[in-house]
């Protein structure tokens, strides 16, 4: 018979091993549940998913680029639905051009065409899309199983030298706006030595 002291020592040595084994078994049995909680598809499904910037073609809403067509473009309703994307910010963007009355007029015409086409998505497909002007609209659309279409103004060139018309227009029709996208964006204060008539000269202090 072993002395009692040896039994106590053996018990003391075995206890950590038994506890570690029990913990390992518990983690092994819980692994499937933990994996399910962190599964990318499951997280995606329970998250409000928003694409914060989508470039749109000049002929958005026409022919192959109609919103209901699974097109060659970046985003359309079939892609948003298939990908589980709840909302998308579609950009009203016009590249910087000549800072002249004629240049501003053409830019405004191009911007108006894109804005009309973006707004038309919800108008043509009210069963699938909603024009979202505030955060609550995005959440409501997701709860209804629809896609939230958010208008984003990018570059205020279409509004000429005065930012206030751009601000008023954005308040009426968009949620996201960035008036200056590139160093030569309009409107902006001139940098020393720059020429405001040239679209290629940085005038946002570089």
TrEMBL record:
GO terms for molecular function: metallodipeptidase activity. Keywords: Signal. Pfam families: Peptidase_M19. GO terms for biological process: proteolysis. The keyword Signal applies. InterPro entries: Metal_Hydrolase, Pept_M19. Residues 1-35 form the signal peptide. Residues 179-206 are annotated as: Disordered. It comes from the Bacteria. This is Membrane dipeptidase. It comes from Caulobacter flavus.
């Amino acid at each position: 018979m072993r002395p009692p002291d040896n039994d106590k020592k053996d018990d003391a040595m075995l206890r950590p091993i038994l506890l570690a084994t029990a913990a390992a078994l518990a983690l092994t049995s819980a692994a499937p549940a933990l994996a399910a909680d962190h599964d990318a598809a499951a997280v995606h499904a329970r998250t409000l998913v928003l694409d914060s910037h989508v470039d749109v073609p000049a002929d958005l809403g026409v022919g192959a680029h109609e919103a209901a067509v699974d097109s060659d473009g970046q985003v359309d309703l079939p892609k948003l639905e298939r990908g589980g994307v709840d909302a998308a910010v579609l950009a009203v963007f016009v590249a910087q051009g000549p800072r002249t009355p004629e240049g501003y007029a053409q830019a405004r015409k191009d911007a108006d065409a894109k804005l009309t086409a973006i707004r038309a998505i919800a108008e043509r497909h009210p069963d699938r899309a909603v024009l979202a002007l505030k955060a609550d609209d995005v959440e409501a659309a997701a709860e209804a199983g629809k896609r939230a279409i958010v208008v984003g103004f990018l570059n205020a060139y279409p509004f000429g030298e005065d930012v206030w018309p751009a601000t008023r227009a954005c308040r009426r029709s968009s949620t996201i706006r960035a008036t200056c996208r590139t160093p030569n964006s309009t409107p902006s204060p001139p940098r020393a030595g720059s020429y405001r008539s040239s679209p290629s000269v940085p005038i946002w202090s570089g």
